[in-house]
Amino acid sequence: MNVWLQITDTAGAVLVFLGAAICLLGVVGMLKLPDVLSRSHAATKPQTLGLLLVLAGVALRLRSGMDLATLALIGFFQLMTGPVAAHLVARSAYRTGQIERGELLFDDLDAQLTEPGPDPGGEPEPGGGSGRGQGS
User: What is the pLDDT along the chain (136 residues), one digit of tens a residue?
Assistant: First the structure.
């Protein structure tokens, strides 16, 4: 066996092990952290990084063009769907009142949710007129 193949196999095994360990830390974080926002963070950040490391390790082991393309697609869709799903879970938890708003450092969403919308009947014009012209 070639020395370079042994090096890539060993590096692939190390990457798979590191990725699995980071995913395990994410699971422990999901079990131990107290609130929804912390859990959603633990569900996305380490899981995404861990999966990408596992995919890189498997790519070093397989070395086939079709396999690499499949692994790249898996990584792409993981990067696109995981954080978006966690954002939607956190936003729905915020809207249903499962978040302690006093513990948030910044609450940009509160201003958007409590801001009154435009009046459906129409607001009077700035000049105070009825909008039909000066002579009416």
Answer: 699 889 999 999 999 999 999 999 999 988 998 888 888 888 888 889 999 999 999 999 998 889 999 999 999 999 999 888 888 888 888 888 877 777 777 777 766 666 666 655 555 555 555 444 444 4
pTM of the model: 0.70
Q: CA–CA separation, 88 vs 84, rounded Å? A: 6
Q: What is the DSSP string of the chain?
A: --HHHHHHHHHHHHHHHHHHHHHHHHHHHHHH--SHHHHHHHHHHHHHHHHHHHHHHHHHHH--HHHHHHHHHHHHHHHHHHHHHHHHHHHHHHHTT-S-GGG-S--HHHHHHHS----TT-PPPTTSS-SS-S--
State the Cα–Cα distance between residues 68 and 31, nearest whole angstrom. Answer: 33
Other C-beta atoms lying within 10 Å of the C-beta of residue 38: 14
| Residues 108, 105: Cα–Cα separation, whole Å | 10
Q: By the 8 A CB rule, do 78 and 48 touch? A: yes
End-to-end CA distance of the chain: 96
